[in-house]
Specification:
Structural class: mainly alpha
């Protein structure tokens, strides 16, 4: 149960990222969240929407793992949490160290909890 709570939290976090990147990128909340100016947001909007879509796929996979049969639910959770972890590490190295704490660390904690419980 604790593992499922962590999975759900990571999924909701990625739904939030999807909303920020796909719909709010060039709005005040989106620009503040990512530290963008209006000009930069306008130039990168399509890229951000694509990125948001990928975050939605991660959330969908994590939600799938919550409802999948027990025989493969943990494998699904491990795969999608692993994807989130890798994306978070890469983003932390290439874009902003903050991503390690916002995306990678929660995914790592969830992976540990899912596999220990």
């Amino acid at each position: 149960m604790v593992g499922k709570i962590f999975i759900a939290l990571i999924a909701f976090l990625h739904i939030y990222f999807l909303i920020l990147e796909m719909f709010l990128w060039d709005k005040p909340l989106g620009m503040k969240a990512f530290g963008n100016s209006a000009e930069k947001a306008k130039l990168t909007k399509v890229l951000a929407q694509n990125q948001g879509l990928y975050n939605g796929f991660l959330a969908a996979g994590l939600i799938w793992s919550l409802f999948a049969p027990e025989s493969y639910a943990v494998a699904l959770a491990n795969f999608f949490l692993g994807c989130v972890l890798v994306a978070g590490i890469y983003g932390g190295i290439t874009a902003s160290k903050k991503i390690i704490y916002v995306q990678a660390l929660p995914a790592l904690i969830a992976l540990i909890v899912v596999n220990l419980v």
